């Protein structure tokens, strides 16, 4: 008589939250659904707005109070404009708010591991931050070049993580993820870019390049890819927070069967066909 088979543990899950400025508020809706449906994950990797939302969640912020805050907050009140040297906004007010919302915690005090992605403009390298004060790392990750003054840290000059890694799936793999659930808030749907001046031409050109990289190199590395439909919402439309959060909820709910299947040990690898 064969002995009883010992149940295998579920795979190690990495949740990757991508960059997207205002559209990144959709991450709140995704996390709400995961909380309600008891979808487990072992750590979070975030870039730019994904780093901010992921850090707030791991620091213990109530996702529903956070939703109310985003609906009523005036982002302009956080913009401490100064005479530009390396950026128009000093970022002091933003960092103070992040410090408050993350309760001044260090990474080791969070409820689960979090890795924050930034970019060192001196070397051009992606930088993964997971030590020290959380608010300082997040402030670096959201620092849009030319807008926010970069963050000096350990000889590096840090700016927005989206510059080098908009959806850092590779970081999650390096951290030991056996399954990666990634949330992309940028490329869910084709949209006609607004091109009225030189800046629009530059931004549209960058997005074309990013889309090619994303489709060819990034997208295939996710086991589950959640893409809220946000094509009609601009990166600066923070006043449309409620729409972003709802889109995140809808996209996460639509992916629930696929997510639940991926959590089952012995599931089939979608790339190789092997049982893992």
Number of DSSP strands?
10
Order of helices and strands: EHEHHEHEEHEEEHEHEHH
Total DSSP helices: 9
The helical percent reads 25-40%
| Class by SSE composition | alpha/beta
Give a short synopsis of this structure.
The protein is of the alpha/beta class and 276 residues long.
Q: Secondary structure elements and their pairing?
A:
Layout: E1 13-17, H1 26-36, E2 43-47, H2 49-58, H3 63-72, E3 87-89, H4 92-101, E4 114-120, E5 125-129, H5 134-141, E6 146-148, E7 151-153, E8 156-160, H6 169-174, E9 179-183, H7 198-218, E10 224-226, H8 241-254, H9 256-262
Parallel strand pairs: 1-2, 1-9, 2-4, 3-6, 9-10
Antiparallel strand pairs: 4-5, 4-8, 7-8
Please describe what this structure looks like.
There is one protein chain. With 276 residues, the chain is an alpha/beta fold. The chain contains 9 helices and 10 strands. Strands 1, 2, 4, 5, 7, 8, 9 and 10 form an 8-stranded mixed beta sheet that branches. Strand 1, helix 1 and strand 2 form a beta-alpha-beta unit. Helix 1 (26-36) runs antiparallel to helix 3 and helix 1 (26-36) packs across helix 8 (241-254). It is globular, with a radius of gyration of 19 Å. The two termini are 26 Å apart. The model is unreliable at 1-6 and 272-276 (pLDDT under 50).
